[in-house]
Every structure is written in structure tokens, then in C-alpha cells.
UniProtKB/TrEMBL annotation:
NCBIfam families: peptide-methionine (R)-S-oxide reductase MsrB (TIGR00357). It is an enzyme of class 1 (oxidoreductase). GO terms for molecular function: metal ion binding; peptide-methionine (R)-S-oxide reductase activity. Its cofactor is Zn(2+). Residues 1-22 are annotated as: Disordered. Pfam families: SelR. Its EC number is 1.8.4.12. The keyword Metal-binding applies. Residues 1-17 have a biased composition (Polar residues). GO terms for biological process: protein repair; response to oxidative stress. It comes from the Eukaryota. This is Peptide-methionine (R)-S-oxide reductase.
Length: 153
């Protein structure tokens, strides 16, 4: 399936069930997370477009998995895609997120999950900025933001 440019989509390369470093207890997560966070991370739900906490955030810092606190994305890679969800051109580092084929809703997409715990984060598309050609379209509900301290504050 061509999506408009020749950028290769990232892939974990496996269709087998994956073992993650962090094992999650669904009942504990229901207590820890908000209903929206649980729906997005554990049931592959999504938040409404333009409603997420981090959609318009422009502060310096890093974005972490709301389930396991794994670093996922850096603010320097965040851009305004106009999609209504936080968008990033790259992951924070090699292996911080994994991707897999998603055939839900009658279409082929590439799902993005936390590499450490397997939490659903969103999807990646190959219509991003020229630097990588990728657009990681991520639910705010799946993220925690930690800002960088400013000198003198």
C-alpha cells in the first residue's frame, strides 16, 4: 500500500505475541489510570481530535508512557500536523516504541506501542516532515510530559 512517498515505515518485524519488559496488571491499571487513559492504552481507544492535553503544547521536555514511564518522544520532534493529536517526526531513541500492522476499522495502518510495556499509543504514517517523513500521531492520554527546568526559574 503506497501512502504518498517512499519513506519506509518502521516495523518490529514480528507477528508473534511479544514479551515486554514491564508486565502490566489490568486491575492495577484501572486504579492508576483515568478511564480515557485505560481505554487508549489497553483497549486501543482514541481521544477526540483537538481535545488532548498535549495537542498544542510547545514546552521543552520529554513525553513518557503513562503506564510505565518509558521515554517515548522529545519535544524537539513535536510538530503541528493539523490532525488534532500530538504529532512527532521521530521517537526519542531507537527502540523506545514499536510498531505493528493494524487491520482494524477496515484499513491497514501501523500501530505504535510502548516498547517497554506494550501500551497502545497511536499510529504512525509516512506523511510527516522531510527530516524523517514520518508522523507519529499519538493520543495525549497515553503520555506524561516532563518539562525541562529553565535556568534561573
Amino acid at each position: 500500500m503506497s501512502m504518498g512517498n517512499s519513506q519506509q515505515m518502521p516495523s518490529s518485524g514480528s507477528t508473534e505475541p511479544e514479551n515486554y519488559e514491564v508486565k502490566v496488571d489490568k486491575e492495577e491499571l484501572k486504579q492508576k489510570l483515568t478511564p480515557l487513559q485505560y481505554s487508549c492504552t489497553q483497549e486501543k481507544g482514541t481521544e477526540r481530535a483537538f481535545a488532548g492535553e498535549y495537542t498544542d503544547l510547545k514546552d521543552d521536555g520529554n513525553f513518557y508512557c503513562v503506564v510505565c514511564d518509558n521515554i517515548l518522544f522529545k519535544s524537539g520532534d513535536k510538530f503541528d500536523s493539523g490532525s488534532g493529536w500530538p504529532s512527532f517526526s521521530d521517537m526519542a531513541g531507537q527502540g523506545t516504541v514499536k510498531s505493528k500492522e493494524d487491520y482494524s476499522h477496515g484499513m491497514l495502518r501501523t500501530e505504535v506501542v510502548c516498547a517497554k510495556c506494550g501500551a497502545h499509543l497511536g499510529h504512525v504514517f509516512n506523511d510527516g516532515p522531510k527530516t524523517t517523513g514520518l508522523r507519529y500521531c499519538i493520543n495525549s492520554a497515553c503520555l506524561n510530559f516532563k518539562g525541562e527546568a529553565k535556568p534561573g526559574l
